[in-house]
Design brief:
By secondary structure, this protein is an alpha/beta fold. It has 16 helices and 14 strands. The radius of gyration is 22 Å and the shape is globular.
């Protein structure tokens, strides 16, 4: 008698067994997958959408009976447990490169070299069933895949060789290096794309053995519906041109022209050079002009803080020039906020008919001002957005991911 049939005989069948019990029976009956998640970003708090995705994926894979190991960067080498997952941190290597963007590329490369060693050590204890990479760092897994023949799944959160074209002049100097590294994904056993738009771009760019669309998820227990109380516009994103940071100086004055309106931007930045430095200085002048009405948060915030920021806004904006999905858009929708964004990448797939996607800056600004002056419309659209967000429950996303792991593993 199988475990499933034994439990069923004890608990009853059909309508007598709750969905929760059936999930337990399925979990107990399935072999436990050992999964390695590789992401430079994981440590909390992080502004990286990839980092937040991996945090949630790990948590829900554990809930569905997987043994999860995460390999990420940290202040020092170490191990700890987080939501049942085992975190392997790779300590920062201080480099003597003064240019911030060159320093970051070098740190990525050193990180991957250390990841190879860490995965080999852990694999010697018990072999991994799946190595799942996130972001542009794929060299380490390409090497391990060739040597140890462990199945490799890669999630495309972006096509890096396309995204880099939207960055500053300083960041684009690594375009050839990024394209060369990302070419290794041609050797993965399975590819996950977070949107249909991204899949189409991926099919043009790479020859992949297997591919599937599995969108980002949202933690509906954390990001739940909340009534609108404040006349505030919110933006969350990296201090980068692909996130539309260079558009903010043009958006802020029109927003400030609306009576009692405020603007909050969470856009962490470190040492910035060239174009980005000029943009930061311009925004600083606006802060001096508008005082409390304009709040710039320049440090990463944890998910609990972001939850409150979503709740304290009336309109969420995403002026990205490149966006394969838009995780912050989904979190804002779950909170019950109308979203105004540019019509790029996977954004229309996320918002559906419960958000506003515009083709140009003038239309974007007009819609933001219109919504600030029409709270009733914001409430109506926010309720639609909240309902749509439930299609992206992390429980569903984790189940789809495990199913794909099992297909790739065969």
């Amino acid at each position: 008698m199988t475990i499933q049939s034994y439990l069923s005989s004890l608990l009853g069948t059909g309508e007598n067994i709750s969905k929760g019990v059936m999930d337990l029976i399925d979990a107990v009956g399935k072999p436990r997958l050992k999964v390695a998640l590789i992401s430079y970003y994981y440590q909390k708090p992080t502004i990286s959408g990839v980092g937040i995705h991996v945090q949630n994926l790990a948590k829900y894979l554990v809930k569905h009976n997987c043994e999860v190991h995460i390999f990420c960067h940290g202040d020092e080498d170490g191990f700890y447990k987080d939501n049942g997952a085992i975190i392997h941190t790779i300590g920062k290597i201080l480099t003597s490169v003064s240019d911030n963007f060159s320093k970051k590329r070098l740190e990525y490369d050193i990180f991957e070299s250390e990841v190879v060693k860490e995965i080999i050590r852990e694999n010697s204890r018990k072999k991994f069933d799946i190595i799942h990479t996130h972001g542009a760092l794929t060299k380490a897994t390409f090497i391990i895949r060739k040597v140890y023949n462990i199945k490799w799944v890669h999630t495309f959160h972006a096509i890096e060789k396309l995204r880099v074209k939207k960055l500053s002049n300083e960041e684009r100097q690594f375009e050839d290096l990024i394209s060369w590294i990302e070419h290794t994904v041609n050797y993965c056993d399975g590819a996950i794309f977070v949107s249909n738009d991204l899949l189409k771009e991926g099919e043009k760019t790479y020859k992949l053995k297997s591919k599937v669309i599995i969108p980002n998820g949202v933690d509906l227990k954390l990001f739940d519906y909340s009534p609108i109380t404040n006349k505030n516009v919110l933006f969350i994103g990296r201090f980068s041109k692909d996130k539309g940071i260079d558009i903010l100086p043009k958006l802020i004055p029109p927003i400030m022209s609306v009576k009692d309106a405020t603007f909050t931007a969470v856009c962490p930045y470190g040492a910035v050079d060239g174009e980005l430095k000029e943009i930061r200085e311009y925004i600083q002048k606006m802060q001096d002009r508008y005082w409390e009405r304009l709040k710039i948060i320049d440090k990463p915030q944890n998910q609990e803080v972001l939850k409150e920021l979503y709740r304290n806004c009336q309109v969420y904006i995403q002026p990205s020039k490149y966006e394969s999905f838009g995780l912050c858009i989904l979190e804002a929708m779950a909170t019950g906020r109308p979203v105004v964004a540019f019509k790029v990448g996977g954004i229309p797939e996320v918002t559906g008919d419960s958000g506003f996607v515009l083709a140009n800056r003038e239309g974007f600004i007009y819609k933001v001002k219109e919504l600030l002056e029409n709270k009733k419309e914001c409430v109506r659209m926010g309720k639609k957005a909240n309902k749509r967000a439930k299609n992206f429950d992390w429980n569903l996303i984790a189940q789809k991911t495990i199913k794909y792991y099992e297909e790739v593993k065969k």
